[in-house]
């Protein structure tokens, strides 16, 4: 079976007419009929029911069409992946946009100007799907991201940079509740992390540190939404301490190292393009 000629079969199945399918494929009608006959003989079953000038799929033909469509699509994707593995390109998805400064990426681009680096921004689910399908080489994500729910347990992580975190709330909330403990006990945590394991970690750590914790969670999608809710006194959040100088109306209380967040490079060890391998080597050499 010549996989490159499967589109003959697909066109015949979709157009339900050998003559029209042949015209679409730019071949003679006799060539189309001969191809279908050889294919049926090779696999030992009839794929088409002939009725005058039109044709329709048998049960075997319908099954073959549905499954071979999937195989053909995957074959095309695989060809593209194999070509990309030797390309000097690096495609990185950005799950976290909290941080604007990744020195290692800037230094890598300066050290290897022949490798073109492209960045993608989208919803977490979309980026993870693109990584799984090898449309992206890697993702930059926070270490709090858990992968079990996405079926990505086989992925590897490399630390890029660690940020100290602060517990943040408005000065208005501090005036109303008099202390950090009062704010935590009465207000929800405002977070982008939907993972229950992270939320439970925060509850447990706050209870151990301050003798109290939160009950409610206010989920947001972006750090801009997080900051808006903080400024509106809708709760408290954990943010990088580097934001402290930019928001005079917010209180920043530095947290211990357990709350530090690390931005990581997430990738599949089974698909490492030349560009990604160059970045991984550079990171390990400059640790």
Automatic annotation (TrEMBL):
What are the HTH lysR-type domain coordinates in residue numbering? 1-58
Origin: domain of life: Bacteria
Q: Name one GO molecular function term.
A: DNA-binding transcription factor activity
Would the keyword DNA-binding turn up in this protein's UniProt record?
Answer: yes
Query: PROSITE patterns, per this entry?
Result: HTH_LYSR
Keywords carried by this UniProt record: DNA-binding, Transcription, Transcription regulation
Q: Which family does it belong to?
A: Belongs to the LysR transcriptional regulatory family.
Q: Which PANTHER family match?
A: HTH-TYPE TRANSCRIPTIONAL REGULATOR, HTH-TYPE TRANSCRIPTIONAL REGULATOR GLTR
Q: What protein am I looking at?
A: LysR family transcriptional regulator
The organism encoding this protein is Candidatus Anaerostipes avistercoris
Q: What is the lineage of its organism?
A: Bacteria, Bacillati, Bacillota, Clostridia, Lachnospirales
